[in-house]
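USER: My hope is that you can spare some time for a protein that puzzles me. I am handing you a single protein, as its sequence and its fold in token form. Walk me, if you will, through where the backbone shape changes along the chain. The protein I mean follows directly.
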Amino acid sequence: MNPILGVLFHWLGGLASGSFYVPYRAVKKWSWETYWLVGGVFSWLICPWLLASILTKDVTGALTAQPFSTLAWTYFFGVLWGFGGLTFGLAMRYLGMSLGMGVALGYCAAFGTLLPPILKTFLPDIPVGETIGQIASTFPGKITLLGVGICLLGIWVAALAGANKEKEMPAEEKLKTVKEFDFKKGILVATFSGVMSACFSFGLTAGEPIGKTSMALGTDELWSGLPSLIVVMLGGFTTNFIWCVMLNFKNKSGYQYLSAQARPEHAGLAVTGGDHSGGGEAPKIDKNDLRIPMLGNYFFCALAGSIWYFQFFFYSMGHIRMGGSDPDGFGFSSWTLHMASIIIFSTMWGWIFHEWKGSSKKTYTLIVVGILTLILSTIVIGYGTYLKGAPGAGH
């Protein structure tokens, strides 16, 4: 274990996750389902295979050597996580980056961090590390659980700041920064997203035999989590692909993948200008207003999708350095660190894009306190994991 390096990797993963939605803001005249699926092809298919092929030994051999049950459970949790990832994008769409991530990741942190040791408590045969009782019985474990508690407190404060912002800002101001702002709908999808996204943590646990096989084939331990990401993210791709294609058919937006010209309703244009029932010509729409910047859209979607993948790339590395492959390690804390770092960086982008403009001093104070609390939690968790790996520690 190397918890200092583990925390650093989780922060890099948080930076990637907190930043991935930014390039999507540059996509023009594409429906949400179109740009989400194009970016997802890079997130769920291209990047996982590319990085695993470059950095691991015989990735195909590591996967084909697994029993069907290992691949099936890893894929299954990936499918469930896919529902979370799908609705995560909708949470950003309806709430904005700051509030959307704060609410969704609050649930995600709680479920993804605490469910593995809780399940281990009641189902001892599940290979997810130690039970809550075993963790709490040692001094390093108590410190680490304290850090988890601090993190959940910080997430709650950040979400409270977001709720205050929603109450204080006039509707027109919200729509300037988040075009489709809808608090009630956003809270529902963010809640569902947070709970389902926690399944990613279970997918990695189910895929640990893949990593061990990869190390046996000569892969460095640091990269051993990459082959299992292929399976987990294939599950996520399945969910998102089906939903986005269904929306393409429903909204008649499938043409956007290949067409250089958008339909007026998809370009945000409406034909207006009086009563034309007398036979007069309807006002013409300039073709330049319908032009789809195809090259730019594909580039920004590829960039967004690749950045999103790198959160999991760094997460798998941080998980290893936090003792994730060690049954006696504190790998469960990786999920908390990951969520905390995402909220920190997504809030940063929220400030840059003025999503907090017009908020009161109280709201600003809350978000600053929330972010500082999250930073403190990463330090405490890292220290607890460091104590776990120290000689003679753990008693």
About this structure: The CA atoms of residues 110 and 152 lie 7 Å apart. The chain has 15 helices and no strands. The longest helix spans residues 139-168. Confidence is low (pLDDT under 50) at residues 270-283, 391-395.
